[in-house]
Amino acid sequence: MHIFNTKDTIASLPYKELIIAIKNMFIEQYTIPLRHIHPLDSQDSDASLLIMPAWQTDYLGVKHVLIYPNNAKRHQKQGLYSTYNLYDNDSGEPLAIMDGNVITCRRTAAASALAADYLARPDATKLLIVGAGNVAREIAYAYAAVRNIKQVQIWNPTHARAEALAQILVDDGFDAHAVTDLEEAVQNNDIVSCATLSNKPLILRRWVQPGTHIDLIGSFRPNMRESDSDLFEDTSVFIDTSEALIKSGDLLEAINDGKLKKENIIADLADLCNLRHVGRKNKEEITIFKAVGSAGEDLAAAILIYESQAKSL
Length: 313
What we know:
Blueprint: E1 2-4, H1 6-11, H2 15-27, E2 36-39, E3 48-55, E4 59-67, H3 71-75, E5 80-88, E6 94-99, H4 100-119, E7 126-130, H5 136-143, E8 151-155, H6 159-171, E9 176-178, H7 182-187, E10 191-194, E11 199-203, E12 213-216, E13 225-227, E14 236-239, H8 244-247, H9 249-256, E15 267-268, H10 269-273, E16 287-290, H11 295-310
Helix pairs in contact: 2-4, 2-11, 4-5, 4-11
């Protein structure tokens, strides 16, 4: 069994290839049971274990996520750690252990970019990133694989973190700037990608201009929100999988407020990848993509890592 550290994992997930791998996973047949969440008997009373399995003909994978929300104040450590185990699905032989944190961040950004390739305007060049955490750091690179991104703006509640991310992007060749006025930024960008842990609306419908693509990555729990309910009333709404309808506070609150009906959700990511829906229909359409993540995306990333690394082993 091979161990791929953080450096190996990053090197094996270039965005163009990862986006294609995720697209192919949505086209092919694979199985995703419901994820398991277990509270832990720990000195951190809020600690929990998340287990996310998925499999297809050749491979089976399991992501283990340990969530310790109080780590920052108790140990000055991050609050989430994850590993990914990949197996041969013909024999059950363990093949590899990988950095699950890297897989999660990169496949999340890649799935959003994959959706944007169907939903954002072809001539979109201006990207607003809302958030400055681990996933937000990946968004510009992922979107640059599907659109000609010429300008990146970053907004974050802590402005210093937005400035730090902007500098990283500048060092990598992006025209990137931190901004303080979120309303103005939403109004002036072609794509708005939110990757936060917010529990209150950040993006308001009245700010969004015709032709904008809104990508909502956070709100993967019922108590989390990145948008107001009005955002879903008169726009074209797409989701990654049906799981979003039971997990996302953005969708659940919009449904409760009467702004969204389940039957009005146009398509999911599998529909787009399999061309059962064409995606954006015109340049004035406002498209919304709401994702909560999929173990199938993790599996696609893990297979890409293993098969690319196996060639050099």
